[in-house]
Amino acid sequence: MIRSIFASASLIACLISFVALSGSLTLADDEKIRFDMPLNGGALKDPLLEMVMPPRGSPDRVSFQPDGIYVRQVEEIAGQPSAGCGLKFINNAAGDFKFEIEFECKELQPPKSGWGQGMMIRILTDDPEASVMAVGCVANQQHPRCLWIQMPRGNGQQPMYGSQPTDFKKGVWIVERKADELICSIKTKDEPLAEKIRLPCTTSSLNGVQFWFTRQAAGNTKSEFVLKHLKFECDRFFTYQAPGKSGWSWRTILLLTLATCWGGYGIYRFANRRS
């Protein structure tokens, strides 16, 4: 009986915490479901976000500041591990969607070889023939800065590619699906929102969206980025129901959690006295 009392108290406390942490997922007036999260240390408390850190022993660094997530990648050092790091946005969604991230690229030099180094968005889908749609803002030996899309086509066909030289020092990067097209746009401090690339894409449901700071097997150079804000909207979410705007403050959550535990302790004392 005592175990069941404390189990119930723990369950209630967890449910209270989940309601509070999911407050970033809301149902907008136009019926689209929207996720809106400033990217600082508090963002990692949200159950829809997962941070992938650099591998153990890597000289690359990630830090969480009030104005964003800072990522510093060093020039390649022989004998030290190097791999990409980034954010996983966990969602199962369908229909049209828009993924929007505010960033600042403080430093990025073209790698000494390879396809490029920089930022990449990977959109995971249910389509077995087009399971990953990849979009990158990278630097390489051909272009100091460029935006590209790789779109799988299935049936043994070569993927579709699209690329365009694009300066991306500071601004907002938007990847959205409208009907059966994937559209990439960039908005910078000095330029208004501009569409860069548009390609046909699968209409299958999403399994998640990943944002990566890339590294190659060899030839990596120094880079430094700041991620400031993430927004996502879609027609339908399958895994999570939008709870609406949360009116729960941390004080309310703490008081309710303490009250629940105190109530469980009171029942435990009462049961002990009777026995």
Q: What does the model show?
A:
The protein is 16% helix and 44% strand. It has helices at residues 2-21, 250-274, and strands at 25-27, 33-38, 49-52, 61-65, 68-73, 85-89, 93-108, 117-125, 132-139, 146-151, 160-165, 170-178, 181-188, 194-200, 206-213, 223-237. It is globular and about 80 Å long. It starts with a helix and ends with a helix. Helix 1 (2-21) runs antiparallel to helix 2. With 275 residues, it is of the alpha+beta class.
Rounded to the nearest angstrom, the radius of gyration is 22 Å
Distance between the termini: 12 Å
Q: Could you name the ranges where pLDDT drops below 50 across 5 or more consecutive residues? A: 2-23, 241-246
Average residue pLDDT: 81
Helix-strand topology string: HEEEEEEEEEEEEEEEEH
The beta-strand count equals 16
* Percent of residues in beta strands: 35-45%
| SS element count, helices | 2
The level of helicity is: 10-25%
What overall form do the CA principal axes indicate? globular
Structural class: alpha+beta
Topology:
Blueprint: H1 2-21, E1 25-27, E2 33-38, E3 49-52, E4 61-65, E5 68-73, E6 85-89, E7 93-108, E8 117-125, E9 132-139, E10 146-151, E11 160-165, E12 170-178, E13 181-188, E14 194-200, E15 206-213, E16 223-237, H2 250-274
Antiparallel strand pairs: 1-2, 2-16, 3-6, 4-5, 5-16, 6-15, 7-12, 7-16, 8-9, 8-15, 9-10, 10-11, 12-13, 13-14
Helix pairs in contact: 1-2
